[in-house]
Amino acid sequence: MKRIKSLLSGLLIVGMSAMVVAGCGAKDDTPAPGGNETPGNGQTETPDDFKLVLRLSHVFSPEEQLTKSMDLVAERILEKTNGAIEIQTFPQAQLAVYKDGLEQVVRGSDFISVEDPSYLGDYVPDFKALVGPMLYSEFDQYTEMIKTDLVKDMIDRAEEAGIKILALDFIFGFRNIITNRIIVEPEDLRGVKLRTPGSQLFIDSINAMGGAATPLPWAETLSAVQQGVVDGLEGSEFTNIANKVYEIASNVALTKHFLGTAGAYISTDVWAKIPAEYQTIIEEEFRYGAEEMIQ
Fold this sequence. Notes:
The protein is an alpha/beta fold. Helices cover 39% and strands 22% of the residues.
């Protein structure tokens, strides 16, 4: 596995160097799209008749912890806002996910996209380096990284692109290689077709490791393994256990090539119309939900 990691070290150095250069630049003081220049977002009271229904979409199955965590977040927000903010959760790609989900956010839909932060890289490229391959060995390394000024600047730039980040740290474990083959050396991965999400970062990383990345929707993944369309997949143990992947692919190579994490994103235009009191509740509950998930 050390040899696999060395194959990707060059990619990480380039990516992190780009982040440092961006972090050293002057911060743009231009208000984010849909933002408000008045103190406290210009919201001083909560209108009694305010009501907003948001649809939250992600790819995880109902049995996975991230799904359960999102349902809890939605329930708490509904309760604490006295029904004013209703978040309807749609797991397992029932609605738009991946790039399409984030596009819904950028277009200003009443929508919350829950995705790997690498998809933010289409709008702020440094996010691809933030969640790059072989970068973290412990959860705490990532949770501390996203508190830095460097990442705060990236979050600001996402807002300039129309994306309000509610969380970046719904962590669901390290991603490994799951197949019916025994993978020990990089050579063992040569030509092995592995299902990946559609993120270009995932595709490039699996190919660099020696495998043959095959992007597929999650709904098609298990049948693709069973039918031999792909030889296996990459994913976390949470995914493996919750979806019973082990019944069709029995070997796990503990590559830990990615830290599995998801963020939650909403349009800045939609965010701006939410009263400040409710904004605070939403941010607090998403933050608490992420912390609770990894405890």
